[in-house]
Amino acid sequence: MFIIGYLLVALIFLAIGLCLIISPGTYFAFLDRMARVDLWTRPGSSWEPKAPRWRALGVAFTVFALFMVFGPPLFVYIGAPERIREHIHSSYPGVSWGALIVLLFFFALGVGFLVRPLALLDRVSPRKLSAEPDAQRHAYKLRIFGGLLLLISLLGMWAQLLRYFRH
Description:
The chain is mainly α and about 170 residues long. Helix content is about 75%, strand content about 0%. It contains 7 helices and no strands.
């Protein structure tokens, strides 16, 4: 189950990276259409949706996604090829500490969306969304998202720690 979620997260990073490499302006227009706002596609004094830095960010996202997929098996194989055969025949694979760190990040993100959703959104948006007239009306959607993120991360951490303490 964890492997499927991990690969889906890697696929999301890969998709975002490829979209930013191919056409960052189209990617931001797509975000605007999904959110039903005109925020990302309008250039401003400090915001240019077609700037080369977005293509560089796309390359970084793509490399990160490829590293997420091919990195762990490569490091395991390079580190100890004889341990691979031993690990495959073992009935207990152990806890994934990397997964626990990622789940802690999503836990903190969920708490942030629950406590101060608009402040967290203002950190990543090109202009202050909390100043929009209907921002407070939509804050509950961000809190629902934060609650779901919090519950899913708690469930994942519980499963990882349960594996650790059972063996």
